[in-house]
């Protein structure tokens, strides 16, 4: 016997269930909830998703997600342009911004070096980081990568590529547990780790 009386509903559930952390029961609840809402609610949601997918771009300066060629952080004159925080991905930018403890710029690598999963330095925006370090006048570069073997490997690789850099290279303090991603750290711990950063041993 068919699980659903509607193929259209079943397809909607199938799509929701593809999202991370969404099982089929939750997918069904979401689909039925939208089905019970005013038509405009579902149309607005669908339009927002389409706009996000088609119109969000990467900032040409830091590679964070943006609505414009340059993101709102890079274009904000109140940010400290001499302070650069290197992160693995855009979720880390969001996590650090939520702490309110950092007022500099970012550079989003797009991941960390992970040979087991086929991610080499050439797959990341390390070359662009080196170019920025020479083109822009930074007094400090903060390596805010995950406290994992892959994150440490990436930190070390970047530090060697930055041997020309005369400013200070720091890393976030170890308030972040080993193995933790920044996005899962609480705001107080992450904020203290940024504020109490320590020199990176090159």
Q: Name the helix and strand elements from N-terminus to C-terminus, one letter apiece.
A: HHHEEEHEHEHEHE
Count every helix, treating DSSP H or I runs of 4 or more residues as helices. Answer: 7
Name the overall outline: elongated
Instruction: Please tally the β strands and state the result.
Output: 7
Computed structural class: alpha/beta
Polypeptide structure, described:
The protein has two domains: 7-55, Orthogonal Bundle (Helicase, Ruva Protein, domain 3), CATH 1.10.8.420; 70-199, Dna Topoisomerase Vi A Subunit, Chain: A, domain 2, CATH 3.40.1360. 41% of the residues lie in helices and 13% in strands. It has seven helices and seven strands; from the N terminus they run αααβββαβαβαβαβ. β5 (140-143), α6 (149-161) and β6 form a beta-alpha-beta unit. α1 crosses α2 (24-36) and α4 (90-99) crosses α7 (187-195). It is elongated and about 65 Å long. The chain starts with 6 loop residues before the first helix and ends with a strand. The model has no long low-confidence stretch (mean pLDDT 89).
Give the key terms:
202 residues; alpha/beta; Helicase, Ruva Protein, domain 3; Dna Topoisomerase Vi A Subunit, Chain: A, domain 2; 2 domains; five-stranded mixed sheet; two-stranded antiparallel ribbon
Characterize this entry briefly.
The protein contains 7 helices and 7 strands.
């Amino acid at each position: 016997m068919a699980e659903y009386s509607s193929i259209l509903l079943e397809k909607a559930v199938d799509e929701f269930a593809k999202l991370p952390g969404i099982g089929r029961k939750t997918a069904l609840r979401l689909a039925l909830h939208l089905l019970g809402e005013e038509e405009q609610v579902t149309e607005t949601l669908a339009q927002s998703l389409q706009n996000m997918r088609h119109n969000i771009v990467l900032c040409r300066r830091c590679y964070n997600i943006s609505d414009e060629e340059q993101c709102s952080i890079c274009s904000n004159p109140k940010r400290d342009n001499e302070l650069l925080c290197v992160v693995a991905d855009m979720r880390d930018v969001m996590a650090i911004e939520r702490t309110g403890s950092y007022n500099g710029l970012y550079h989003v690598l797009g991941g960390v070096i992970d040979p087991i999963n086929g991610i080499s330095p050439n797959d990341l925006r390390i070359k662009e980081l080196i170019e920025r370090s020479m083109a822009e006048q930074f007094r400090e570069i903060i390596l805010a990568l995950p406290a994992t073997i892959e994150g440490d490997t990436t930190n070390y690789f970047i530090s060697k590529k930055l041997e020309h850099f005369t400013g200070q290279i720091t890393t976030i303090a170890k308030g972040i547990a080993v193995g933790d991603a920044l996005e899962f750290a609480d705001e107080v711990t992450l904020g203290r780790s940024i504020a109490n950063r320590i020199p990176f041993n090159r």
